[in-house]
Amino acid sequence: MKRNMIFCTAAALSAAAFMLSSCAFGHSGGEETGETAPPAETEVTLSNAETPFSSYMTQVTDGTDNYLMTVKAENGLLSVSLEDKEYRASTLDIVPPEGFSAVIPASGTSAHDVCKIVTNDVDKRIVVPDIIQFFFTDGNDRTVSRFYSIKDGRFGAVEIYDTADSGSEPVKAEYLDRSAIYHSEPDKFITSIVVDEGVGIVSDISGMVKIHTMKFDPEKMQLTGGYENISENNPLYFGYAYWGLANNAASYFTETLLNIESKDKYVRMKSESAPDGIYYYFYTDDARFGSCEDMREYLRSLFTDDIANRLFTNAPQRYRDIKDRLCTLAQVSDRDRSLGMLTFSSYEVSGNGSIMTFSTRQEKYDEDGVFKGYTDGGKFQIIKIADWAYDVNDNTYYDEERWIVSSYRYPYS
Q1: Count of alpha carbons within 13 Å of 7, Cβ hemisphere only?
Q2: Which of 218, 242, 285, 308 has the smallest set of CB atoms within 10 Å of its CB?
Q3: What is the pTM for the complete model shown?
Q4: CA 200 → CA 28, 232, 250, 308, 336, distances in Å?
Q5: Which domain holds residue 150?
Q6: 292-300 and 305-314 helices cross at what angle (nearest 10)?
């Protein structure tokens, strides 16, 4: 079972952190606290909200100078005009991939959705031009992306080189078959965190999580895809891997139901706390979990005992054993739709390499899905603990170290 733990946010298409002596992006600070506003030059003006979409104007940067970018729509096609401070302009047509058409907002109200501007707000001391992402649809449920940027004062297409798996070399691609990208480093973006749960118990994380990233080379105007090495020697993505696992596990106690054997197979149980006095427990159908203890063991393989107990006890989807079967309530918690993707802003490795603490920030959106800045996402921490293992082949016990999550908040609650 594989689950992609990168989600589309409310702004993404209406569908879907550093070592004291070795800090990511070359700085030891960067912790986000409270509310932060987006870059001051993000939005200039929108089309008239009462009319169909015709154009969208905003400011973009090449990392040094600002430009006025105007996106226009005519007869289902998009074009971009870029104007510098000397009023010199260049224009480029946004050509859809074969079999696709541009995603164009229905009206001026959502004009900001015509493209996504990916700005280096991770470390502004590193000069990285904005990347402008346009979306294309095949008319069904498939959405793909193409990217553009600024070089030598001109607006141009960014070539994409991607790889199908971790063992192959990147090859040129016509588009990126994904819609969401998130900054992990000034010139690198995470496109997906895919969790392969296997039997459930967390063991070899490098075999359980795949993180796909795209690295931007502004000189070559290229985005190159690849898969990150998931190991302690790569702390940033080691942390993201555990964060993906934690989200995956926590989702079973917040938003995601285990597979249910049948909607017609349930147990009615009287309870004063139930809305109508009756709880309906459904038999689950998941090879990993046959009992509540199986689920607790799963959580304890990833979290400290206090977090595991809190997740299990406070879950809106109450699990319980009935007639030697694991059963669940078909009940989920409300999700805060104003919160988007959570990313790491800085990290610190301490305790002789046994503690990794990640500061996080989380996207905030208004009721119209417009990005309004970041809010403090709290601390995410993993620690290395000493454990023991038993080898049945030679009947011996031996010490074993493993990582568990010691500080965590489900990011959409």
Answers
A1: 20
A2: 285
A3: 0.81
A4: 36, 21, 13, 14, 27
A5: 41-231
A6: 140
